Amino acid sequence: LQEENASLRSKINKLQILSEAQADKMRKLERKLEENKIKEEKEAQDLEAMVQHVEQNLQLMTKRAVKAENSATKLKQENALLQAQLKNYKAENEALRSGQSASLAVMKRNADIALQNLLTVITSSQSSIKQLVSGAESLQLVADLLKSIDRISEVPDDGQ
Fold it and tell me: Of 5, 18, 83, 160, which is least surrounded by CB within 10 A?
């Protein structure tokens, strides 16, 4: 019985030592597990922060893309407006050139008509001038005749 007791005590001691070793091992594993949990939590927080940072960058890039699209749309509209204005200006320029040619033709026609009228006026005024000169010569002749009549009437009465 004593042997059995001693053997059992020996087994109990061995089991206690084994139990303590296992308990130490268990505590070490628990600490390691706790450290791993903390490490994983930190990694999860880091990943969450990174995801948030990426989301913020995506939002900024989206805003920039929307702004760029709006700007591009505005520029396209402005370009279309400027193209239309350019087309109108070209058409107006062409119309002015055509009008200028037509205007030059009208001016030339008017100048020809004015020249013909001027030549007619010159011809008729030459005739009128000739008539005026002839009338002036006739008036001079009449004036000379009247002077000579005055001289005749001023003859002295001695001879009567």
Answer: 160
Tens digits of residue pLDDT in 63-75: 988 898 988 999 8
Please tell me the distance from the alpha carbon of residue 95 to that of residue 102, in angstroms, as a whole number.
Answer: 10
End-to-end CA distance of the chain: 225
CA 32 – CA 36 distance, rounded (Å):
6
Distance, in Å, from the CA atom of 129 to the CA atom of 127, rounded to the nearest integer, reads 5
Alpha-carbon distance 27 to 44, whole Å? 25
Apex CA 109: angle with CA 106 and CA 110, to 5°? Answer: 85
Amino acid residing at 133: V
Of 135, 117, 139, residue with least CA distance to 127: 135
Measured CA to CA in angstroms, residue 128 lies from 71, 83, 132, 134, 135 at distances of: 80, 65, 6, 10, 10
How far is Cα 98 from Cα 84, in angstroms, rounded to an integer?
A: 21
The Cα 153–Cα 31 span in angstroms is 169
Q: Is the pTM above the cut of 0.85?
A: no
